[in-house]
Automatic annotation (TrEMBL):
It comes from the Bacteria. Residues 1-23 have a biased composition (Basic and acidic residues). It comes from Pseudonocardia xishanensis. Keywords: Membrane, Transmembrane, Transmembrane helix. This is Mce-associated membrane protein. It is found in: Membrane. Residues 1-27 are annotated as: Disordered. The lineage of its organism: Bacteria, Bacillati, Actinomycetota, Actinomycetes, Pseudonocardiales. PANTHER family: OUTER MEMBRANE PROTEIN RV1973.
Amino acid sequence: MIEVDERPSDTGEAAAPREDTTPRWRRRPPLLPTLVAVVAVLAVLTGVLAVAAASADRRADDEAQVLAMARQTALNLTSTDPANANAGFAHLQEAATGRFAADLSAQAESFVRVIQSAGVNSTGTVSEAGIQRLDGDHAEVVVVVDATVKNIRTPDGEPRQWRMHMDLQRQSDAQWLVSGLDFVA
């Protein structure tokens, strides 16, 4: 940095510029603008991290709710007994919407009648469940259920395994319901 001595010289000529002898590394940038810039950058980074953390928490909550609903629906479908067939079917209907709700309504009488007349007693356990896709208000889940099925013809029970593909839809009250269910090989 060059400084100019503005005092007149004894000869009446303008003073010659004088060079600053302070080493370059010792010169400080203006403190206030630097602090303002640092605070602004930190505020922006804090905001970005807060939004990212909230989004991750929301996604984790959605994943947990989707898996819980899919698991419970699979259990409700594979855990039956003749004495509680109507109640079991009612639980299935509570978790249903869309195509799945329509399919259940169409099969309501036959579902309960078959369980009661054949003496179907089944206890299912979910061995695996995973989310294939979760986008906004729609999810796809695959659930694997192991069950022991007893009925009039097999009173000792027979082990079974089912794989179900479920479509789930978030409702306006933020609850996830099953909108489609297919058994897959």
